[in-house]
Amino acid sequence: MMTRLKGPASVSGDRPGASVYPESPLGESIEGIPTGREVDWEPLVDYRRNGVSETTIHGAVAWASGNEVLHSFGGNVLCYGRSMMKPITMKIFAEVLSDKLTWEQKAISCASHNGDTEHVAAAQSILSESERGLMRTPLDVPLVQFGRQVRRARRWYHGCSGEHAAILRGCRELGWSRVGYTLPQHPLFPAYLKQLRKTLGEDWRPLRVARDGCGLPTVSNTVNELARLFANVAHERDQDWVWEAMQRHPDLVGGFNRLDSTIIKIGEGSVLAKEGADGLIGLSIVHPDFPDGLGVVIKIAHGWNAQASWYIARSVLGVLGFELRNPYPLHRQKAFIVPGIVPDRYHAALETLPTWDEWDPDTDRWYYEWEQYADGGET
Questions:
Q1: CATH code at 144?
Q2: Cα–Cα distances in Å, from 182 out to 197, 212, 215?
Q3: pTM for this entry
């Protein structure tokens, strides 16, 4: 006779390994770590069909210059920096790899790329063939594919392959073991925390550290902290090769029609952008009004939404004088920005930035009064 286990079989208390699972599928409460249900998310943009809001994108936006947080909207949310932090990670190896890598190799080391041929070639060129087996990125297929469809997953197609290859090359140059480079006990992890503490202070400690999608440690930061870190990237742009490499080869940073690549190109040397998984985009901006650099970080509450992030980034950059095009248009909807994404002094400028283009079809309504037909009126 079969014995029915209480609760989900994978977490039943009498099964091996049960202690590593959460106690309840409803979520646990951890003191000092608010969940996404408990933070003050704010609407950032909503999509309306003939005046009725059908989709509302919530999130948080923070502006910082130097160590000062200038504007925070949507709560000081705790999240993981994910791949948005690659420009800061590469600062660990900035000196030792300065004359070892080409500009293309330096750019791909900061990338979350599409997996195009040029991305794979640049990432592979960082390591010798005999070293490539050390790389621990997960198997993946290209993020964006045109024409021939790749179905055989390879580590090099993963968006983080350039970063992992550069880490392995940097470990070799520093004399660090390349075995276990994705683990917290490897010298890479404390070196990364040291980079963060240069901006956040020597006493700063992360509340949580988790495994990122690529296997490397990812550190929890508040959105305000992330904005400060990105402000510092702009302020110290001349101290290493990270800024210049990403400016020289923006299409290696992301790829075709990617938000960060597009922003870097329109910024013409004054804006660095980096996307991160689950709804993050970080902007490092050189602007005369912010001599200590300007950092703006956008976090979408529900995770990755390239179109919403694009509308918000266009508005943020637009009020600062940078012209980013609109994303591809919505289908029979229009996007409307919430003013709180920018500081009060920019609200007037925000009103001059339409979220649609003059050639977009205006197809979410009819051009005559529909009310007369609602009660069975004559046609």
A1: 3.40.710
A2: 20, 10, 6
A3: 0.93
